[in-house]
Structure formats: C-alpha cells, structure tokens
Design a protein that fits this description.
28% strand; alpha/beta; single chain; seven-stranded mixed sheet; 254 residues
C-alpha cells in the first residue's frame, strides 16, 4: 500500500494570503502546504481522503488518472470544498464516485452540492454515491477492511481511518478511550499537529507527541500544519525519534 500526502497544511494553507511571516516567505518547497489530504493506492485502486479546495490542483500535480473512492473525515470547507471536481473522473471513467462518510457529513454534502443531488440534474454535475459508514464498524473496500474511528474536533465528531497497521487522523483535539483501543497495533500513524501554542480544536505538538507515545507506532507523521508552527527545517529539530514532519508530495510505503 502506498500513501501520498496531497496536502499537509491547515485550513488556510501555507503560505497564508497576505501574511508577512518568515514561514510564508520561506524558499523551502516543504513549507508550501496545500490543504490536508492523502491518497491511498492498493490493489490497483486509488482512494482519496478528503477533497479540499486544492483537490483539482492536487490531482493534476500528482498526475492522477483514476479515482475509485473518496473517504471523508468531516464537513468543514477545507476538507470538502473541491468535491465538484470529481466530475472529471466521472467523465473519464463513465461511472459515479462513492463517497464514504457519516450521516452528518453526507447531509452537509447534500446541502453544499445540492445540484448533484437534485431530482433534475443539470448535465455535467458530479455523480456521487453516498455510502454511509459508522465509527467503530469496519467496512470492506476493494479487498481491504477499513475501520472508521471517531475523534473529536472540539465538539465535532471527525472520522479517522485505519487500514491494516496504518491509521490517518486529522483535525483531532481529543480521542476517547474506546477510539484509542481501536488504534492498538498501528505501526504507521499520520496525525494532526497544528502548532506549539494551545488551540481549542486541534492537537498541539506536545499533545500530538503524547498521543503518538500512547499509540506507540513505529513511525508517526505530523500533518495539518499551520504557518505558526515554524519552518519545516525547524520543526524537524523539535521531534523525538520516530516522529516526522510530513510535507506535500511525500510518499510512504506501508
């Protein structure tokens, strides 16, 4: 299984519009962060987790020719805003794209992309099949079992996903004991770490390290990174052994 980081930035991305800070003006390409998303390839299938505002460019940048499914973590704009652009894959593949998420996210998609779900569909609208999934209940997808795991984004439930010994968690602030149990045995973890300062709805660096230590994977990659965190080269120096800072277009083999 191959995992590609399509984007590793927070809701504003990095650089942030009109920001004068050194991170936003860094010449290090690792400090250019599109909105957070990953692509998972296995069994000749391609799955994307979240379709944020940069989805179109992410697909072009990675030269993606086929999309088989989308997993949605939650309904915030930085995770769903690019969904309309799956219609390019609809056209090329001549089939709809299944969107796996919980009812709350599906309800938001029906509202946000109302034209895709209306009784009369204008020609060319995206063709989406909403597939409801439930936290704590595995579902089969192209020969693998995927487990949705609920974490809390302040007061909002967000879905993380586990496939075999790999797990992806973004926009978490707290994780329940029940969800920690579902993460036992994970060897490769992708986890959000917004910044060093306290935040109401995202893990800080210190909190992310605590979560990683508890799950105890072999490798943890930090994502959903803000310009307030610092430059990539400086973040690296803060990290203990086995924890790494991700960057856009990083590929890991699992």
């Amino acid at each position: 299984m191959r995992v590609t980081f399509l984007g590793t930035g927070t809701s504003q991305g990095v650089p942030v519009i009109a920001c004068p800070c050194p991170v936003c003006h860094s010449e290090d390409k690792r400090d250019k962060r599109l909105r957070s998303s990953i692509m998972i390839d296995y069994n000749d299938r391609t799955i994307v987790v979240d379709t944020g505002p940069d989805f179109r460019y992410q697909m072009l940048r990675q030269d993606v020719k086929r999309l088989d499914a989308v997993l949605m973590t939650h309904s915030h704009k930085d995770h769903i805003a690019g969904l309309d652009d799956v219609r390019a894959f609809n056209y090329q593949q001549q089939q709809s794209i299944p969107i796996y998420s919980n009812k709350a996210t599906h309800d938001a998609l029906r509202k946000e992309f109302y034209y895709a779900f209306s009784d009369y569909k204008y020609p060319g609208v995206p063709q989406l099949e909403l597939e409801e999934i439930f936290a704590g209940e595995p579902f089969e997808l192209y020969g693998k079992s995927i487990l949705a795991i609920e974490v809390m984004h302040y007061k909002m439930p967000v879905l993380g996903f586990r496939i075999d010994n790999f797990a992806y968690i973004t926009d978490a602030k707290t994780i329940s004991e029940e969800s920690f149990k579902l993460l036992e045995g994970v060897e490769v973890l992708i986890l959000n770490a917004l910044q060093r300062e306290p935040h109401i709805s995202h893990l800080t660096l210190e909190e992310a390290i605590e979560v990683s230590n508890r799950i105890s994977p072999k490798k943890t990659f930090l994502t959903h990174i803000s310009h307030r965190f610092g430059k990539h080269i400086d973040i690296e120096k803060m990290l203990p052994e086995g924890i790494f800072v991700s960057h856009d277009q990083l590929v890991i083999e699992i």
